[in-house]
Amino acid sequence: MRGVLSIVLLVASCSMPELPGDELSGTEKLLSRCILGQGAACHALATSPERPAQRQYQYLLLGRACALGEGAACARIGRLQAGPRPGSPPRRGFTRWALRRGCRLGNRDSCFGLAWALLARLGGPVDVPGTLAVLGDS
């Protein structure tokens, strides 16, 4: 999976304009760092106002950032996956996973999102004890 994501990110970078000399743009630096495993770079690239990521790449970048330990990215992708996505149904089981991971990483938005997901039957049955445990820990 890691190799496939790296290839996808490299292909996405091919659409970036060439710059004179050996200088890398800020976006290209972030992409390089993301490929090398820096979650903060993946998160920054996914949310960059300089070069907004296409929706499918934004999901990939946020998912990678979350997997690399960026709690804020987990909260963001959890919220994005919970709602309607163009061309595909919501991935509610993934929503719970991402929010749970973000909460374990100490991100409060993820914890509150997870509590909401547990009460709203997102990705599984209502889990009141789990919700209370999440809210009690945050």
Written description of the protein model:
With 138 residues, this protein is mainly α. 65% of the residues lie in helices and 0% in strands. Helix 3 (39-46) packs antiparallel against helix 4, helix 5 packs parallel to helix 7 (108-119) and helix 7 (108-119) runs antiparallel to helix 8 (128-137).
Indicate the proportion of strand residues: under 5%
Could you tell me how far the N terminus lies from the C terminus, measured between alpha carbons in angstroms? 32 Å
User: How many β-strands, per DSSP?
Assistant: 0
Biggest β-sheet: count, sense, barrel? none
The secondary structure category is: mainly alpha
Q: DSSP helix count? A: 8
Whole-number mean pLDDT:
76
Q: What general form does the structure show?
A: elongated
- Cα Rg: 16 Å
Write the element-wise H/E pattern from the N-terminal end onward.
HHHHHHHH
Uncertain segments: 14-22
Helix share bin: 55-70%
